[in-house]
Amino acid sequence: MFKINGKIIGDGNPAFIIAEAGVNHNGDINIAKKLVDEAVLAGVDAIKFQTFKTEKLVTGYAEMAEYQKNNIGKDDSQFNMLKKLELSYENFIEIQKYCIHKKIMFLSTPFDFESADFLLSIGMEAFKISSADLTNIPFLEHIARFNKPIILSSGMATLSEIEDAINAIYCIGNKEVAVLHCTSNYPAKLQSVNLNAMNTIKNAFKIVSGYSDHTQGITVTIAAAAMGANIIEKHFTLDKCMEGPDHSASLSPLDLKDMATAIRNVEMALGSGIKMYNASEVDTMKAARKSIVAARDINAGESISLIDLDYKRPGTGLSPKFYLDIVGKKISRDIKMNEQIAFNMVE
User: Fold this and answer.
1) Distances in Å between the alpha carbon of 216 and those of 20, 193, 219?
2) pLDDT digits (tens, 9 = 90+) for 160-214
3) 263 touches 251 (CB < 8 A)
4) What is the pTM of this model?
5) Spatial CB neighbours of 219, under 8 Å, sequence gap ≥ 6
6) CATH assignment of 279-345?
7) Of 118, 112, 50, 109, nearest in space to 85 by CA
8) The domain at 8-270 falls in which architecture?
């Protein structure tokens, strides 16, 4: 358990919901600001972007992933694709100020050392590290030295690779780490999600855990909330039909709002876990439960046998569970059929 900007992250607290804008601004700061506006309207805890210098992130000969080719509709180099999606540091300073003005937490995933240092310099509250850098131990160690909370996605990773990443961060002395289960495909098919792995991670490392979702729709994120996810991250966009690698696997603004509302409703419904009747059930309890009543007219002085008892609504009298405390006792006054029998009526 740890805090991000005063918000407690961990069991017993509401899930920390991150609206992942990523590169869905298409390199346009005005679109980025509109994404901030929509995240605010959705009621999420934070909006997250991606900060990188293309030259420091990828070589000129790196090929695009298959999903990127499919979503963009053409085969190009990663360098050319990412260069079009890059925002300047000055842009991010402006976006962060806009987030402060709009009262939503600004986060961004750094993809290179220089970008990580920049985000630290502007006072970012926590650092999200992408699945792609889970095995980048030098990068993990560098960010761990910032002594800021770290949220680490674990797409494409084995449990032993997650362990290596956690140990690398812990060895620096940073213990404020959360790991998000993730399937690194855009969109991810339901049969590839393996959502139970989220709690496998939590139990294996006794760590704050959550889920970064790339499936279509909001079903799996709601399931993750019901399973106790501490953090939930989901891509969103202004328009799923926009050109770019992630738009088609992202939520619309309306869907993002529906997701956030559904997650909060699930958390409300989960409750404390203590099995007890709710105050709202008292009236129903009286109307629906049953009481011990006389099965016939019984005269004073008669002994009650089992066949003299019946059990009928309302539940405002003696509970049927006390029937053995009545059987064999003498009635102290006349009782009419269907009249509720109480302890003060027997000797």
Assistant:
1) 14, 11, 8
2) 999 999 999 999 999 999 999 999 998 999 999 999 999 999 999 999 999 999 9
3) no
4) 0.89
5) none
6) 3.90.1210.10
7) 50
8) Alpha-Beta Barrel (3.20)
